Amino acid sequence: MSSIASGYLSCSTDVTQKKTLPQLLGTRLQRRRQRCPSEPQLKETVIQFLRHHQNLGDLLLEVIELVNPNSALICRNVNGSMSKCLSRYGKVNPEHQIANSAGKGAFVASVLQEQALQMDLPVGLLAARASMEKIQQIMQQGTMPKRAVVLDSGQRRMLACLLQSMQELLSSNMLSRLQFIEEIWKAKELPTLEIVWRLHKEGIVSLEELLASNPDVSAVVCWLFNDLCLLCLGTEDEHQHEEVQRQILLDIVTVLVRNGFQKLNLVESNPKVQHLMQVCFTVLGKMIPWLLDNVRNEGEKEDSAGQKTTVFWLDMFDVTLFHGAISLDSLKQFFYHTLTQVLTYNPVLEASDAIRRQGEWCFAKTKPLLVTLYRKLFVLFSAEELITHFQQVLESHEVNWQYVLSSASTLLVCQPESQNYLKELLTKLLINSFENYELESIITAFLLARQAALEGPAVFISYAEWFKNSFGSASGYHASSKKSLIFLLKFLTDLVPFETAQYLKVHILYPPYVASKYRIMLLEYISLAKTRLSDLQVSIEELGLYEDLSTANAPPKPQCQAMQDVERAILIFENSGKIPSSVMEASIFRRPYYLTRFLPALLTPRLLPPAQDSRMVFIDSLKKADKIPENLYTNYIHACEREKQGEKQADVSMSEEMQHPMEPLRVLTTALEELSKVVTEPSDSGVVSAQIAVIFGQLKTMVDTDDDCTAMDKPIQLETAVHELAPVELEVRDLLLKSFCQTFITATNFSPPQRKGEWASLFVKMLCGHRKLLNAVLTRVLHLITRQGSSLADVHILGLAAFTVHLHILQLMLLPVNSTGRLAESAGQEGLPFAEYLNQFLICRTGELLTFCMRFCTAAVAYAISLSPSSSIDIIKLSVPSGFVQKLQYIVPRLIPEARQEQETVMEPMWHNLVDLHLNWKTAVLSLFKHRTFKELMKMKELQLTFHEWLMSELAVQPDKDLLSDLDRQDYQHWACYQLYLPCPLSEGGCGGDLETACRIIINALMDFHKRANGQYCKESECSELSSLSRSCYESITCRLQEMVFDLEKVWTKALNKSSSLGNGHFLLDVFQERVASLELSNLSKKLEHQIELQVFIRLLVVLPPGLLFKTHKDRLTTTLECEAFFHFTNTELRNDCSKEFVIPFGVTLHFFRGLLNTCVEYEEPDCVVADILNVARTCCPLLLLSATFWWLRLEPVLITQWKRLTDDTFPRELQRMVDNQCWANRLLSGKTECSPPDIPWIVGAFLYFTVKRKAGQAILQTIMRKICSENELVSVLCFSLVDLISSLLKPKDSATLTVALKTCADVILVLEEQNKSWLNIFSVANKDRGPHQILYSILSDMEIKLLPVAFYSLIPGLDPKLLSSIIKRSDFISVAVILYTAMVKLFLDGEDTILVSNQWDLRSSKQPDPLGLITRGRQFLLRTIPDCPAQTCSQNQLQAAWKDIDPELKAALGHHLNICNGDVLYSEPTML
To answer: Does the reported pTM lie above 0.90?
Structure first.
């Protein structure tokens, strides 16, 4: 048979070289056609010819043309679909083609049978051998390199024809499949993969049959593995054969997976299946190490062949390719097996290597091909399944730590839900390690925790936080026993030689919790860790004062950290005025760092400013505290002098030194652009997470961040100064914000925020891992919104609003925001989440700010509502900043009148209005305002805009820059007050329909705003209080209050007429008392705040109707008027007002009398009403009448004019009496001597004193006083002059003022002494019952009463000696003098002198003595005058209270002079014997 076959082959070769069979037959047919032979004769001739010249292999290829030269050859193309290879002879009828195919099969069968009979071989074996020999020839005729696994186009056409013939033979049972398989394995060269694949696809020999037929597993595995590797490697003409390669590989892998991962019951029952499974399983198992080797070599070679080969095989892990071809269980088993192989491949790295190198295995640094493999393997499994599989592999295998940790990073980044399962795994590992003291578990836990922390806070908590949570408290895993503690410390000790510096810092600064009795063990570890740090050239002593530790970055240079510490210390010094405690502690406990790092950074030579700045003041303070050595300070001053000459050169060198390369910035830009593309693609969230992780890794390489271990424990510090950031860091900051805004708009244009909001959350979380960048970005956002908001484009507004919302959602992850410098001064409240902190700066003062706030808050609230996946209002509320909702409730009705009407509720999505190409803000705002969710939010108590909050917002508007005109603003305010808030229930922030409640709220708001505006405007500019209020709606809101008060008075009048038991109340004074009650007047700051409250209230009091000061009572038929509440207010508040000068202000005094006249005319006898009120005032509120006496010349014309307008009756007699008093004083001053008017003596004396003071000074006071005979009038004049003296001591204007005051008091005392009047009891400060002069003390303030001893010793020692001698002889002088001296000493010891000396303008240029000098002068005066006092007239009882408080020398002198006997309570000389 072989010889015959060879003959056929040779013959076939000659024939094919000369003429083909159709050509030969065509020539014969022409000749016979000429001879006209019959059809049977022609067929017989052809058959005889073929029998003598046939080649079976060529026959299988060419017989189809013999059957019908004009037929179309049907073969399969490379994709397995049917295509036609048309002959050059054209097309024929399909029916004729089908009829002739049967003839072709019969012809081939006859030839095979004849050959088989001649060779004595089975037909099936002969066909199998012929087919295999032809396959070998086709393999040898190709143009591909030796052992190519794919065919060229010519080989592919020949093989298609051969396969067609073999199918015909199989259908007629002329070809044996088993014998053909045997021939395949007997061949010298096994068929290529494409031939095997085509045999498989055409159903001639399946791949399963082929693999199962060879008992030599190793040979089969070796052949298939090598050809698979070659198939992945590809060919030179990649584009032509790439699709064929992929289809071949896919089909083969499908067979391998389907048979390699079958159910065990099927495998065990069938040996052939078990054999096939072993082959498939082994081949797939060998492919994974080959793949990992290629991945490991990625980047080492210049060509990309290895990478393309790897990618080719990685594509086979695409789950969608196997849909329907492989069961899900088999596919999962394959993926599990592959993942296990990856994690356990080549486990040569030990745990110590992992500890040292795991920073290189984070997600951003993992090779992309390896990441792709991980992500494809993770697709079929949930996070919980993967974490469980990780745990099983770690417990049962030796693992490759690089693959374990890099795959863990990929899992955490690409499947965020795996974070919680990882925490559970860490908990299990730690519990197991400390229960069984298993070292492997704790090593695994530490490695996984550190690896997760490397991916930043967007993925996992920082390592420092995890370590503190696990071991930092008494509830830690190690705290149960001493053995557990020793186990932990030994483990940490064993890690020390392999640890990097950042982890050692965490363990030192946040050590494990240790009981005091075991602390020596912890100290041993800390000592060892510090030694390791010194070996790494990192000193724990050189840690910055404000340094944040990091688990991901190397520590910053000590010089850079020291400069940051200096800047932070100076900022703290600016705010507090004191040297920071951290600096003081460092100068003592961390002296090496303080002397070698901090001071050199602080004392860096510079050009000193003309005036001392904060840095220089800070240096001087340290110098005064002896914290700067003298030589360092001297060298610094000299170096600063030399710095003047070299300033420019230093600036140039500094800028060159700080310049960063720009290449990393382009890399970051590319990564951000890629993120913008990724978020618009319908891919899974893992792709976005992976790209965010790439950006995170790039940021870590670009920005010199501080260590971050403790960053999450500290509030976010917003800095206004940007000079601390390098130029590249500023560009990174702006690039991040710009990219976020652009990506946000791009993403939301494709789909609503609910579907594309995850990337933004991950982006913000990623920023949280860069605390330095986060601070810079937040500061920039704050600056853009508060200072450039009106100039921002819509894109920026939408992007910044979304950024703020995501920050608000992550507020549990971020600590509150604080600020420093000038930013802190303008912030109302510190320690708030960023969104609420930002809300403080969104003050709607102008029309531009109102418009911007409306747009920004609309975008933020609409985005937050659209972002929430739930329809629950409680869940949506967590995403919405409350301040923004309140801002919209204020601004929208103000700027859009349509919003003031009741709006229909809509439920349609609102976000499309904001991303519309032609954005209409009014439409967008109204769609949000009418949305059902927003209406539900407005009903929530914590999100409601109360009446008080509305008032504070409205008061801040500047009318000259408002978008509303005066009339429009008035209409809006009327709508808000009367239609919105007045009928609104109290529980919803309204007034409950009560006008009095509305007035109370408005008064409180006006006072709050008055205080805030006064402090804020005067801090920003040196403007007056009135000008600051004029730039607000203070006046218009005051008008609304006046309108409501007038309406309220009508309500009271109507109610009083209806009921005999009702009466109007002093609600205005009640408001002030309630505000005062909330203040704790225990310290000086609260007292000052109380004084401010009083001043603000007085200003508000005088603009309201004066009738509010009076209260009307109706009892049956009797109606009475009273003013007790105002009298109490005057005696308690106005009397002690530190801003008053002698009397209460004119405005308040006039307001009272105007109210009195307006109210009394409503009664039948107004004169009696005025008399009753003023008579009560004489005894209960003398300060009010004293003020009327002081201001009478201004009060009289106003009151007379008002009375004439109100009634034709005569002027009330009590007021007329005051007119007479003033006339008497004027006549007395003109030289006329008359009897005193029939009025209370102190009122008469007040008229006289004030008239003299106004008209003639006090020069003629002594002469006029001699004309007065009444003792009470003279003493009252002395009292008034003493008040002037005290006022001169408290608030000295010049030296002449104090001199005049002393001279006036001396003149009055002289007159009193000349008339032998009793006057010393006016100084009886210790006597609660001050006798006839008790009424005068109710005029003085508490501070003036306390300072009477000061006035006494400022006045009496300086009197004329003759007058002083007369005073000393008085019986009560010595007791009064000693008591006053004791009171003055106590005043000094209690610190009350601060009020006296705090306002001294110049002690050296005035006659005012300092407190200590005054005490010394008083003591000397007593020692000098005691011998001249009449001892027998002194009352011991009066001195007993003050006896124990005087000094021994004074006590001895007084006791000796008074001749006190032994046993008495006074001092006695000691017995010397």
So the answer is: no
